[in-house]
Amino acid sequence: MKKAIVAATLAALAATPAAAESYTLQSAFGKNLPILGPGAERFVETVRVLTDGEVDFTHYGAGELSPEFEILGNVGAGAIDAGWSYAAYASGEAPAAALFGSIPFGPDAIKYLSWVLEGGGLELWREIYEPFNVVPMPCGVIISEAGGWYTKAIETPEDLQGLNIRIGGLGGAILSKLGANAMSLPAGEIATSLETGRLDATELSFPMIDALLGFERVATHYYFPGWHQPSGFIDFYMNKDRWEALTDGQRRAIETACADVNQWAIATAVASQEASLQKFRDAGVEVKRFPEPVIEALRQAADEVYAEESAKDPMFARVIESYRAFSEAYDEYRELNEL
After folding, report:
1. What is the reported pLDDT for 168?
2. Distance between CA atoms of 166 and 314, rounded to whole angstroms?
3. Which is the most buried residue in 42, 197, 243, 262, by most CB within 10 A?
4. Domain regions of the chain by residue span
């Protein structure tokens, strides 16, 4: 009888879900931003479901626990468990990290994701982040951004000279080659800075997100293509010690949740831009492409920046060469299938 009771008790314990472990997830983005905010919530819920509640992230919006540019350091130190951010924010300490935020004049969303997941990109990304004591992965694919908002028309490359433009990372370095002044500003300060003349231009994201900031009230020229970010990633990263303490199944659940957000972000964003473009046109904004001479000048400047960064940083050279090798093979197959 006692053996039966013991056996029943052990069976009941085995059937009881493990106690939930709660983790902090600090985002670099506002919860109200399309794709970026809901994407984090979707990730949190998917992980919770897949782990039967054993892994439970609490999503904090921009600035709630840590300033945006300090998330990586705080996660590495263990003060925060995980980050939801943008890899280029780490480029000051690790220049090659910028190539996992976007590659100017580089891949579209599908090609970018293919290189990272199947072309060796993720292994390089994790090697770059190893000194920060975090484990990264793509967790939301950003479709091509707009080329930016300008308070005056850009007809020639010379029109960029002397302009104060809010843009960071490699895009800023490229514009600087053409005489522009690249500046970093939080999203909340952009519209006022355009209105007061502190800024002459800005990039932020694609139309669906730009529509929330009211740029159409202070800038009347909206340019495409988003040469500086043909696609990009939201990156999820977790403190390495906490990542390694998870079970194999829990880690797989996080990877699966990120894969889900990747496809969801592409589909949601692609289907949602036209309404915002029409809103801008109705407000009197000129929606147009940069003239080809401007695009070509930016492309040449990008090649110069890649060469200079590769000469300065061996890891940057390894990453850009990895992408280029993958790109060559990928493009051959794509061109064979063009209709």
Report:
1. 83
2. 28
3. 262
4. 14-141+231-270, 148-229+275-336
Q: What is the model's pLDDT at position 185?
A: 85
Nearest Cα residue to 39 out of 68, 24, 61: 61
Q: What is the pLDDT of residues 177-210, one digit of tens each?
A: 999 999 988 788 999 999 999 999 999 999 999 9
Rounded Cα distance between 311 and 297, Å, is 21
Question: Which CA distances in Å does 308 have to 15, 193, 208, 316?
Answer: 59, 31, 34, 10
149 bridge partner residues = 202, 222
Q: Is the pLDDT of residue 8 over 90?
A: no
Q: 314-336 and 121-129 helices cross at what angle (nearest 10)?
A: 160
The CATH number fitting domain 14-141+231-270, selected from 3.40.190.170, 3.40.1190.20, 1.10.12.10, 2.30.180.10: 3.40.190.170
> For residues 243 and 289, what is the distance between their CA atoms, to the nearest angstrom?
44
Domain pair 14-141+231-270 / 148-229+275-336, same fold: yes
User: CB of 87 within 8 A of CB of 98?
Assistant: yes
Which spans in 22-165 are helix H? 36-50, 71-77, 109-118, 121-129
| pLDDT for the residue 19 | 67
Q: Pairing mode, if any, of strands 21-27 and 148-150?
A: unpaired
Tokens of residue 300, six digits: 């040449």
* Residue 153: pLDDT band with limits 50, 70, 90: very high
pLDDT at 76 over 90: yes
Rg (alpha carbons) of the chain, rounded to whole number: 22
**CA–CA distance, 290 with 52 (Å, rounded to integer):** 50
Structure token pair of residue 185: 């500003």
CA-CA distance, 173 to 197, in Å (whole number)?
Answer: 22
Q: What's the CATH class of domain 148-229+275-336?
A: alpha beta
Count CB atoms within 10 A of the CB of residue 186. Answer: 11
